[in-house]
Write a structure and sequence with these properties.
With about 130 residues, this protein is mainly β. The chain is built from one helix and nine strands. It binds copper (II) ion (CU). Copper (II) ion binds near residues 52, 63, 88 and 110.
């Protein structure tokens, strides 16, 4: 490796090492009024997706938190119920049948055992309205 290549390698490596993971909603957007079924698309930067059960560094799978007032315990497995939806096959989008009303959504990445990372990789909380 010549000096220029070594320099570029170090530059790219440090850019990767210092970019923190980010999880976010591609759609819907905060405040959006939508029809049911609602298409929800998950975005993830600077991190990888792996299905539940696959232990690979710097990966995880999505969890959709619906209408939660408090986050689940970030040190243990994320519960699985209608308010904590797991995407353990590595899905990056879903369709939800929802009754009309206001909903809050938040994304939380979990590791191969469904435990949030440290520090947690958590999206902004968005609110949407499902039309009649
Ligand atoms: Cu999970």
């Amino acid at each position: 490796m010549n000096k220029l290549n070594l320099f570029l390698f170090l530059l790219m490596y440090s850019a990767l090492a210092f970019s923190s993971p980010e999880v976010y909603f591609i759609s819907p957007k905060n405040g959006e009024v939508v029809n049911s079924p609602v298409t929800i698309k998950f975005g993830l930067k600077n991190y990888g997706i792996a299905p539940a059960g696959i232990n690979f560094p710097e990966t995880g799978h999505h969890h959709l938190l619906v209408n939660l007032t408090e986050l689940p315990d970030l040190k243990s497995s994320i519960p699985a119920d209608e308010n904590h939806i797991h995407f353990g096959k590595g899905q990056t989008e879903t369709f939800l049948e929802l009754k009309p009303g206001e909903y809050s959504f938040q994304l939380l990445l979990g590791d191969w055992m469904h435990v949030p990372h440290n520090p947690p990789i958590l999206s902004e909380k968005i609110k949407i309205i499902v039309k009649d």
